[in-house]
Amino acid sequence: MVDGVIATIIKAFLLINILMVFFAFMTWVERKLIGRFQARYGPNRVGPYGLMQPIADLGKMLQKENMIPEGARPKLYMFAPWIAMACALGAFGLMPFGNVATLPFTDYTFHLYIADTSVSLLVVAAIGSLGFYGLMIGGWASSSKYALLGGMRAIAQLVSYEVAFTLAVIGVIIQASSLSFVTISNAQDNLWYFIPQILGFLVFFVAAVAESNRPPFDLTEADGEVVAGYHTEYGGMRYAMFAAAEFVNAITLSALGAVLFFGGPSGPYLPGPLWMLIKIGAFLFVLIWIRATLPRVRFDQLMKLGWKVLLPVATLNLLLTAAVVAYR
Amino acid sequence: MDIVVFFLAAAAAIATAVAVVAQKNPFVSALALLGNLVSLAVLMLLLEAQFVAIAQIIVYAGAVMVMFLFVIAYVGPRGEVGPGDRKPWLVWLAILAGALIAIEVIVVTYGATFSDWAEIDGDYGSPAAIGKALVTDYLLAFEVVSVILFMGAVAGVIFGTGGRPRRLSTDEVLAKEAESAEQRRREASRAVLDATRESMGEGS
User: Residue A109's beta-bridge partner residues?
Assistant: First the structure.
């Protein structure tokens, strides 16, 4: 807590609301872009350019019947989306949007991040891995074999890709010799880390797409194989929470990529938060582009890629970085 | 503020610890253990041990408990534990162990003076300080632990793969299936050819 309790609560409240509005906007962007990639219009009926589509979707979700499948464990079934959602939002809280700012028309200065600890990066990794419990509990508690299989796939994918993900990130940690996002993004003022850490960045990017369960790694909800995976039995707002958690995770991983490899909020002319938004937006655009372009991988291809390609490459990058830093 | 967080986390730790043994379903017990690990991490945070708290969550909550839940949910026993599964000598053993811990807690709290605060500097508990301690003062223990972990990994691979017939990879299965499909197709066409020949032979 860098700014006192009240300021932190206000910032957290603002961040959550901005993040949710951004998520709603991004669902529109995603559907619009996917439409364009597939040579059709995408949503264009509700409001100008279909911009009100997310609000219409929300209204539809809210009206759905609140039901629990037979044989499910009601408490865990209802609790699972909250875990996913809380972890997705919590991980974003540590992202820096700049250093210090002054409130307009006053002398009050505050930091453009909620918290900066000496272990920020680990906190994000920890909260991110806790988020997978939402998927697993949801899959287990709905008493459906497809949900169970989807949850199992989610865990297998998490375990395989988290190793490569962490090793790729350690390269950045060694180079910046810090785990704090503020220090890491400030250390890139001269050179963005994606140039010296290009191997690490490639591994990070593939593993991040896999960790966010987005296509082509969306085996947890492959509709031809496991219906909708862990959220097969969920409807209405609970389904919406899972979907939101998944997308917010993608936003968090984009922000992480921007901070670790592209200098975070630093950039010429424009203010920090705007740069951060541009970088997050660029990452999300590439994610949507990939979703529209690549077919889904098979499960054995997924495992082979994680253990036999990404892990050795990440280890090699780690050794190279350590050798260079030690020699310097 | 600190004291409120402490009592909340301590109450959560005790409640979840009771739930681990009181719950009948192993999956729910494992979830309670997860809650216990997280509330212990909060207590560690209050003791300025940031790195240890986060490492606890990443290693135990994020990896070890995932494996526990995985095993319980997918290959573990179905159903719940009933009262008939309890062995009487286990109850006595549990009472004995509880009594020993209670005696230890009482002795330690009576003997200690809580007015002596520990002196810590600003760097205490940071990843840098812990890393330095691990590779200087405690290097031997650190390396020995890594060797033990490596042995565990090797043993896991051996137990997991040894002694069983080699599993076919998906590509091999697909190739095999394609081969047998080709054979079936050939047989079918040969049968059709034979039938045609026969009927033609009858016709002439």
Answer: A102
**How many Cβ atoms sit within 10 Å of the Cβ of residue B151?**
10
Residues of A in Cβ contact (< 8 Å) with B24? none
B184 found inside a domain: yes
Asked if the interface predicted TM-score (ipTM) of this complex is over 0.85, the answer is no
- SS3 state of residue A110: strand
What is the Cα gyration radius of chain A?
20
pLDDT digits (tens, 9 = 90+) for A138-165: 888 887 888 888 888 888 888 888 888 8
CA A144 to chain centre: 27
Binary contact (A130, B70; C-beta < 8 A): no
Nearest Cβ partner of B50 from A119, A148, A159?
A: A119
Examine residue B38 and state whether it is found in any structural domain, yes or no.
no
Q: Supply the range of the domain harboring residue B179.
A: 169-204
Q: Which residues of A touch B74 (CB under 8 A)?
A: 148, 152
CB atoms within 10 A of CB A168: 29
Q: Residues A277-287: pLDDT tens digits?
A: 888 999 999 99
Render pLDDT for A287-324 as a digit per residue (tens, 0 to 9): 999 988 888 888 888 888 888 899 999 999 999 988 98
Q: Chain A, 284-303: which have a CB under 8 Å from a chain B CB?
A: 298, 300
Mean pLDDT of all residues in B2-19 = 90
Distance CA A222, CA A153 (A): 10
B49 lies in some domain = no
According to the model, what pLDDT value does residue A2 have?
58
Count: domains in chain B? 1
Q: Which residue is associated with the tokens 């891995």?
A: A129
Chain B CB within 8 Å of residue A117 CB = yes
| Lookup: tokens for A58 | 């929300």
Residue B9 lies in a domain: no
List chain A domain ranges.
70-98+116-327
In chain B, residues with a C-beta closer than 8 Å to the C-beta of A179 are 127
Q: Does B32 touch chain A (CB under 8 A)?
A: no
Q: Is the pLDDT of residue A1 over 50?
A: no
Secondary structure (3-state) at A109:
strand
What the block records as the tokens of A86 is 């809380």
Q: How far is B65 from chain A (nearest CA, A)?
A: 10
Global confidence as pTM: 0.79
Is the omega angle on the peptide bond into residue A48 within 30 degrees of 0, that is, cis?
no
Residues of B in contact with A140 (CB under 8 A): 27, 69, 73
Contact status of B74 with chain A (Cβ, < 8 Å): yes
